[in-house]
Amino acid sequence: MAAPSRVPAPSPALLLIAHGSRDPRHAATVDALAREVRAQRPELPVTIAFLDHCAPRVPQALAALAGAPAVAVPLLLNRAFHAKHDIPAALRSAGARLPVAEVLGPDPLLLAALERRLAEAGLNTASPAVRARTGIVLAAAGSSDPAADAATRAVAADWQRRRGWGAVTVAYASANGPRVPDALAQLRATTAVRQTAVAPYLLAPGLLPDRIADAARQAPEPAEVLAPVLGAAPEVARLLLRRYAAAAADAEHAIPDSARRSAA
To answer: pLDDT tens, 181-215?
Structure first.
């Protein structure tokens, strides 16, 4: 008699954890990104949670999951304070022991999303000649964590190397480090650069992206191109799914064989 076929267990839910903001555009962008994730993986349950300012907070989102398996995916570009402390603390305080995926950066998909946004702003990113004469300001939030800022600088160097930009430098909207006008002036002094562009290395609109945009427009020599934030770019959604899949696979491999057989 043939053994009964095993029905695959349903995939754990993707719990997308964002920081949150008083700016309503932030939550709207997170919602749009969750819709893009669902469009790419229609069978996958996707739930949103926020650390602050917006609802649902982490405990509310976990209560809605009603104990169903889930993987927490931070909507963060760098492994700084929120990834190292806030998200683990929020999950602990809610009594949840979930696998937590890696943050999004660095990854070539983020570079593709940055170039998508620059192209939408009018820059011909497909042209090697245009790239060679264009200087980019990769404008990030900034962090008190030196490792996070070092990671952003590494992203800028990798982007220039991979894609042949005339120059890519970093500016920050907060914390220490160069501001956008200083970074634009630095690019203007670079021999190869004939035009400049500002690419916000940020996921959603809010105070810091607005600060970056104002600085790009009001600099003594304004940038010729100002891109929007990464937002619900398809590449960002694809990267979220990759981080989810890696964390889910790691969690599955961590289950002892005996427990896996009993669950089956």
So the answer is: 999 999 999 888 999 999 999 999 999 999 999 99
Q: Residue 50 pairs with which residues in a beta bridge?
A: 18, 57
Instruction: Give the number of residues written for the chain.
Output: 264
Provide the greatest CA pair distance for the chain.
81
Cα separation, 121 vs 136, whole angstroms: 13
Cα dihedral sign, 59-64-67-69: negative
Do 11 and 47 meet the contact criterion of CB atoms below 8 Å apart? no
Contact 74, 87 (CB under 8 A): yes
171 with 194, same domain: the answer is yes
H helix or E strand, kind and range, residue 16 = strand 13-18
Token output for 184: 């634009």
In a domain, 2, yes or no: no
Tell me whether residue 218 is exposed, middle or buried, using C-beta atoms within 10 angstroms of its C-beta: 0 to 12, 13 to 18, 19 or more.
exposed
Query: Any bridge partners for residue 74, and if so which?
Result: 17
> What is the number of structural domains in the chain?
2
Of all residues in the chain, what percent carry a pLDDT higher than 90?
Answer: 81
Q: CA-CA distance, 31 to 13, in Å (whole number)?
A: 16
Q: Looking at the structure, do residues 117 and 215 belong to the same domain, yes or no?
A: yes
Q: In whole angstroms, what is the distance from residue 222 CA to residue 215 CA? A: 8
